[in-house]
Amino acid sequence: MTSAREKYFSHLEMIVKNLPHKPGVYQYFDEKNKIIYVGKAKDLKKRVSSYFNKINSVSGKVQMLVRRIADIKYIVVETEQDALLLENNLIKKYQPHYNVALKDDKTFPWICIKNEPFPRIFPTRHVIRDGSAYFGPYANVRLMHTLLELARRLYPLRTCTLSLTTKNIAAGKFRLCLEYHIGNCKGPCRGLQDEADYEKSIQAIKEIIRGNITTVARQLRDLMTALATAEEFEKAHLVKEKLLLLDKYQSKSTVVNPAIHNVDVFSIIADGLSAYVNYMKVMNGAIIQVHTLELQKKLDETPEELLSIAITEIRQRFQSESPEIILPFSPGFTMPGVTFTIPKIGDKKKLLDLSERNVKYYQLEKEKQKEQVDPEHRSRRILETMRKDLRMQELPVHIECFDNSNIQGDMPVAAMVCFKNAKPDKSEYRHFNIKTVEGPNDFASMEEIIHRRYKRLIEEEKPLPQLIIVDGGKGQVSSALKSLEKLGLTGRMTVIGIAKKLEEIYYPNDPLPMYLDKKSETLRLIQQMRDEAHRFGITHHRRKREKATLTPQLTEIAGVGYSLNQKLLWKFKSVRQIKAAPLEALQEVVGKAKGKAVYDHFHPENKKE
Fold first, then answer.
1. What are the pLDDT digits (tens) for 389-399?
2. The domain over range 263-371 is classified in CATH as 3.30.420
3. Which of 92, 171, 191, 596 reaches 20 to 30 Å from 232, CA-CA?
């Protein structure tokens, strides 16, 4: 069947040639005229051309996308920021198959200040575009209720749903309710509070919700001073209580220097299939909003691409206009009027560290939830990440790792450990005594044990691993490959080597090593297997060396093996003292029968016929 790319190649080529060198958004359509991908670009021509010019060097997922493209449309915009916003809106509208999926567990609540005379303030999950002011959304519902409670205690407002128009109030249609009598409302329904005074309370509450607590506190202090000067001490005391309440709230939420004001903080952590981005809004050194967004990867997007998507989405969702964004690395784009800060030390670095801890905890919590539902989820995720990182065609469900051990060429041995589904399978661990190699020759030793291992698996008709790891660099990998060629197994398994110094990954016939991210799960699993093979090999080598160093006089005793020899030498320190020991002392160490055998061996004259 002819692919979409072949069928429409001349059509696509003409579109790409005529693309402008301008910022904008491009859309890919399939044969059914359905949008399958939306992307942004600083330079439309360069970005779109890269999909077709580098088709053989990109991942399989991107190649699949390109093969499905039947048409391209684009929108030119003025700035890179416009491109970011337009891309975000189009992705949410059309949800293309190959775009990153934004995942939220629930609809978060907002604080609504109703567009009406004497506005009410209340929480809601439904945003109605009727001119009302909405603040949020609040991922931390507890924080939202804390803010509402603080606002109500500082500024008594009405909670009723009465239509408090000037006409209705003047006509005396309403009666004072219990809320007025207990001090939670000032009675605007009866004209006891005018709209100007009520509006001052609303403006102060808006400042508190936005995190501008310092502004409100300053206003309260000025009012308290004015009341005290006018000798209205009771009123001044009430204002003082409000100040104390405000200070108490602020002391609970301040985490860093209060001079850090109106700042957004972002951090990201990504694994094989998903990424998590944490967002914190900081006002006057206090965190007033926290949210973590999960993104499902589709085309092996880089952390920079994922972070740019998340920043655009979250700032739009939370209506943030902070002039400074703190983040761990440059997102690869600019925003008008916004400064990107990548802190290394100081209070801003502490904020970034806090955000990174939050996103790690969130990821761990999500993984635990997934593992409870699907116990094999973690293994599949690690194997899928490894398959992608090592450019394998199939999942490395069965992996074997080899290591050589010797001391200056003395008694060379080797070990193999086996992992299945990313977990050790100790029943498949094997030790090897090197038989055909003289002296310290790691390459020849590796060639021997690889040949012996897989010749036996073939003879016993057992399944072969998808991945072979050898401890070493190019030489060890080449040696392993020689044995596989002799057995006719070339190409049937992926073979890699890991060098100890820089943790480089070597492939057969590739002169340059591959470097994996030091924090990647792929490298951690490879290191775990390498270290386990080394431990297993060293244990075998140590036992073999200890057996070889035992005195022949003890090994000649019938029925007395390695462990009993060790016990005797540990207790008596030398063969001469063992020989001089009385029967009872020997029997205390190794038992009656074995003690008698040792005693008779050194004292044949006392042996009874």
1. 888 888 999 99
2. yes
3. 191
